[in-house]
Specification:
The chain has about 160 residues and is mostly beta strands. The chain has a single domain (about 15-150), classed as Pnp Oxidase, Chain A (Roll). Helices cover about 15% and strands about 45% of the residues. The protein has three helices and twelve strands; from the N terminus they run H-E-E-E-E-E-H-E-H-E-E-E-E-E-E. The N and C termini lie far apart (about 40 Å). The model has no long low-confidence stretch (mean pLDDT about 95).
């Protein structure tokens, strides 16, 4: 039995996920970024994270050729940033809220966390490329993170 894309997406919508804006700078100095919720840790030793990027994304080639990237884990107050970096055909950096951060990469000073990565490995995975990064520097504050669940932005709620 084969699972279709609609059923698969419906099942995955029930899995809460962090929301991150991932940025890089190409060899010409152009900034690139996208919103992603397929982000997680992969290893503690060495410190590795992974983020998935659709091969159809306008940012795909820039990230495939990048040697480093910055994961900005968004706070609950940053839905506008998540939406801006998810849109196509707009200047995602127009709000001037990105400044040089770890490794000189564009970052949000108000992010809940930032993880600066050098590319460790690229993995071809169906219609996506998995960017596995070696974490070179981190930053975090006590902001409540933004999550995506049931096709909506949410915030985690403690049970106890």
């Amino acid at each position: 039995m084969s699972v279709g894309p609609v059923e698969f997406a419906s099942a995955l919508s029930k899995v809460p996920a962090p929301v991150a804006v991932v940025t890089t700078v190409d060899e010409r100095g152009r900034r690139w970024g996208f919103t992603g919720s397929a982000f997680c840790s992969a290893s503690l030793d060495p410190p590795l994270v992974l983020v998935c990027l659709a091969k159809t994304a306008t940012t795909h080639e820039a990230f495939r050729s990048a040697d480093r990237y910055l994961v900005n884990v968004l706070g609950e107050h940053q839905t506008d940033v998540a939406l801006r970096f998810a849109r196509s055909g707009v200047d995602r950096f127009s709000a001037d809220d990105m400044v040089p951060c770890e490794l000189g990469l564009p970052g949000l000073l108000t992010a809940a966390a930032r993880l600066a990565c050098s590319v460790h490995q690229l993995v071809d995975a169906g219609d996506h490329t998995i960017l596995i990064g070696l974490v070179e520097a981190t930053y975090s504050v006590a902001h409540t993170p933004l999550t995506y669940w049931n096709r909506s932005f949410t915030r985690p709620v403690g049970l106890a």
